Amino acid sequence: AERLAGEPLAWEPLADEDAALLSAQIVRARLSLPGLGQVPRRLRGQPLRLPPSSLFGRVTHVSLPYAQLTAIPAALLVPELCLLVSLELSYNAIKNLPDADDAWSSLVSLTALDLSHNLLKVVPAGLSRLAELRTLNLRSNHIRGWEACLASALRGLARLTILDLRYNARLATADERLIRATLPAAVLG
């Protein structure tokens, strides 16, 4: 318990009695679990267990790179994270994003979403519910085309100014022209 003071949260299963100690640490503003690719051998392949969502009330940043995620944990799409400003889920194995229209609606303050270096092929229309989103990083995924995979999600993101789609080999030059026409204020990475 002492090691939690002032240090980033380490990845390990949490006992119920640790929740009170943890709340004083992560509720300050940031939940960060760096270096999950380096977890001890005994923990590899175990599901990531996040603290109870009731502790997320004041969390503004979540960073889970290299967490071996294949999907976005439901615990990250809860109303308790209404103050979340940035969500980094880069370098995982996420293939699909939640598609329900209301799946993203609780993240009302989110301005930056980093899904780079995953296995995404499609960006669902539900992502357009992120009304405050200004930065979207989709670099190095498997996105295949503007109309089929991106258009409905991005058309609703009026505040989006930075969109990184680099290294999605299946996006053609014609797709880039359509993106620029739809999002004239966006800087393409």
Automatic annotation (TrEMBL):
Keywords, comma-separated and alphabetical: Leucine-rich repeat, Repeat
InterPro entries to which the protein is assigned, alphabetical: Leu-rich_rpt, Leu-rich_rpt_typical-subtyp, LRR_dom_sf
Record PANTHER family: LEUCINE RICH REPEAT FAMILY PROTEIN (PTHR45617), LP04042P (PTHR45617:SF181)
Name of this chain's protein: Leucine-rich repeat-containing protein 51
